[in-house]
Amino acid sequence: MKTARIKTLGIIGVGLIGGSFALNLKHYGLVDCVLGAGRDTSSIVKALELGIIDRIASIDEIAQKADVIVVATPVNAFAKVLQQLMPKLSKQAIVSDVGSTKANVIQAAREVMGNRIGQFVPAHPIAGSHASGPTAAFLELFQEKNVIITPLVENKPEDVALMTALWQACGAHVQLLAEAKDHDDIFAGVSHFPHFLAACYMSFMESDPVRRQALKMGGTGFRDFTRIAAGSPEMWRDIFLSNREAMLHQMDEFEKELVHFKHMLELADGEQIYDWLAKAAEARRTWKTVQS
């Protein structure tokens, strides 16, 4: 098993997730040098100024020198970045990602990496914020959060163990999930669809002058429910499209719930509405108990 310490870390896309991962490894002395690359010059310069990375590097240099390379770009950009990495990629390097969907990312990696697919260890940290970019990165982002690793049959056990140990060093709870489709189905329900609901509600409120006025009167409940709608449109567009099948299934099922509640309301069935609300409230209280 490899020790949970590396000489060089490469981050491609030094934003909230990639930047926070780098900050943790530096803070805990688990890396000697962090190389950063990105498409936005001002962002990568800011990451250097903030001390998140030690040096701005080309993708070729990262491919040649990094022991671990984390591609922290939007999902839709992953394949292109991997294509740029492959010509110079060290045979000893581990490549990982932080994408919110896994089946399409793994398929892209197989197409690009071919018989070197064993160097790719897919990962998904369940942590985020409405803020983005290197200024959003912070040390505590992954504390007590889950990170899902979906190892491939071609992965070396020691490479999976190293990535597990690095995420654990960030304060995360690491879970291994064998099937990428299971991952995507699960997170369509607990991550992607909730974001859709928040964004859908904000779009609905913005579409009418009276409702726009009402937005000025919202309180803490409104704030808490809609917080995630402020996330990166680019990132969430890519997530929705890459997990389209599972999202459409969630929408079909949720439509049944809307029809069910509308029917109860039309009948003014107070007892059924109470039972429905009580069941939902208990489910939420139980979830919180499990998480604490």
TrEMBL record:
Any Gene Ontology biological process: tyrosine biosynthetic process
Pfam family, one: PDH_C
UniProt keyword list: Amino-acid biosynthesis, Aromatic amino acid biosynthesis, NAD, Oxidoreductase, Tyrosine biosynthesis
Enzyme class, spelled out: oxidoreductase
EC number from the UniProt entry: 1.3.1.12
GO molecular function (one): NAD+ binding
Gene3D superfamilies: 6-phosphogluconate dehydrogenase C-terminal like domain, NAD(P)-binding Rossmann-like Domain
Functional pathway: Amino-acid biosynthesis; L-tyrosine biosynthesis; (4-hydroxyphenyl)pyruvate from prephenate (NAD(+) route): step 1/1
Catalytic activity entry: prephenate + NAD(+) = 3-(4-hydroxyphenyl)pyruvate + CO2 + NADH
Protein's UniProt keywords contain Oxidoreductase: yes
Residue stretches spanning the membrane: none
Limits of the Prephenate/arogenate dehydrogenase domain: 7-292
Family, similarity comment: Belongs to the prephenate/arogenate dehydrogenase family.
PANTHER family in alphabetical order: PREPHENATE DEHYDROGENASE, PREPHENATE DEHYDROGENASE [NADP(+)]
Protein name (database record): prephenate dehydrogenase
Organism placement in taxonomy: Bacteria, Pseudomonadati, Pseudomonadota, Betaproteobacteria, Burkholderiales
